[in-house]
Amino acid sequence: MIFRRGVSFLLLFALIISCQSKKEPKSHSRPNIVFIIADDMNWNDCGVYGNPNVKTPNINKLAEEGIYFTQAFLTTSSCSPSRTSIITGKYPHNTDAEQLGWPLPENQKTFVKQLKDSGYWTGLAGKHHMGDAVNDDFDSIFEMQWQDTQGPDGLDRRLVGDGSGCDEWVKLLRSRDKKKPFFTWLAAFDAHRPYYEGAIDNPHKKEDVILPPYFPDTDSVRKDFALYYDEISRMDSYIGDVVHELEKQGVADNTLILFITDNGRAFPRDKTTLYEGGIKTPWIVKWPNKISPGSVSDNLVSSVDIAPTFMRIAGLNPLTDFEGIDVSSLLTENVKGLRDQIYAEDHFHDFEDYTRAIRTKRYKYIKNFYPDLPNTPSADVLRDLTWQSMLKEKESLNEAQLRCFLKPRPEEELYDVKNDPNELNNLALKSEFSSVLNDMRLRLKKMRSATKDSLPPVRTPDDFYRETGLPTKYRIRPRPSKKEVMKALLEGKPQTNSYAE
User: Fold this and answer.
1) How many domains does the chain fold into?
2) Under a CB-based contact definition with an 8 Å cutoff, are residues 79 and 262 in contact?
3) How far is residue 458 CA from its own chain's centroid?
4) Which of 311, 337, 363 is the last residue of a domain?
5) Does the pTM of the predicted model rise above 0.90?
6) What is the mean pLDDT of residues 271-278?
7) CA 389 – CA 385 distance, rounded (Å)
8) CA distance 225 to 237
9) Contact 276, 43 (CB under 8 A)
10) Which domain holds residue 313?
């Protein structure tokens, strides 16, 4: 009798194993992916990257429970080109959306579409800024909405809700198809200008501000930074809400979270430049049971690597169109040397520009192809506190603080970013660094050739006046596509807005 029971048990066990082996793997066994992207936030304006005065407990906790990279970079320092580069896995000049506001063309492939076609539920909430062609790649889109109100100084355009652009992140997570693995693109409008008081209950004070040396230490600049800190802190609270919701839904252990920013802060010499304040990004990944908590990596990574990495994590082969590389092994293994450099570019953003950079772990090389143009920050910066303070104090500004006004710019810039992290000492004209300069020149030449990067046939007119930040007749919103803009410029008939003088 004991023997028969043993046989019966073995037969039953074998039958269960046989049935299980014939089942398809559960779709939700594939990891969920939550991509969180800040807007106009500097890489080091949070606690984990060295600024203890900015209130970012949730960002810090992501790093404590996962891994953060100290050498992470973006392909550009401009909002929409950065996003379209990420979603296509290409350098901006190959997306045909390299200028601010140019929509991504329909023929461009995205990693989101690949995830969706493979069985993922895909959703976007918050700032979009990539054009309508990508809409079908997402099962659901909760795009932030604007409203026009009459303010004391005229028409005031503000976001519906609290202004963060994060209001519906949790709503998106709750609306997903629970039978599928999911990918969400959660995009903040924080910390984009304009800044308003009252963003958080316990605002930062001017005394909390840590100023880089390329800013004058004035009350106006400190107030501007404090308001900027408030927006980072507001976004941080929404990141905490997302993590809590994942835990509440019971999916946190099988969900990878990546947090980055689209470009640096909207201040002079940061956003729209190829300095560290323009293209360096926080890069924090939490993936329970995969990544050892408290890990730190000094490996070079680029935002062009996100597309192939996400596809590999989802169990898919990256597209051959991608120009980035799969860096998923850096998350869980002690791997070194996947990259020895990153490539970054700057195009039109409110104002015309064309600049390229190569960054190794030690050096940064910047080539200014339009040196006759000053390094003017974005138009919203021109109209706000810091720039106005710099104009007022211009006679007392030091050399570093005057560089945004410099015209012409040097054609070449070389920095030892290890010993000169604020990039204040240009080594390009120093003979002792000639071999480094030649090496970086060669790297840039090879990258331009390999990625088919070349000067455009014609320059694009500025959308704003560089002195005042007020719009010119060429500012059109929504902005026409690259094809339309280039056709008009080559014909000598640049498009103008309907209210042009």
Assistant:
1) 2
2) yes
3) 28
4) 337
5) yes
6) 98
7) 6
8) 19
9) yes
10) 27-337
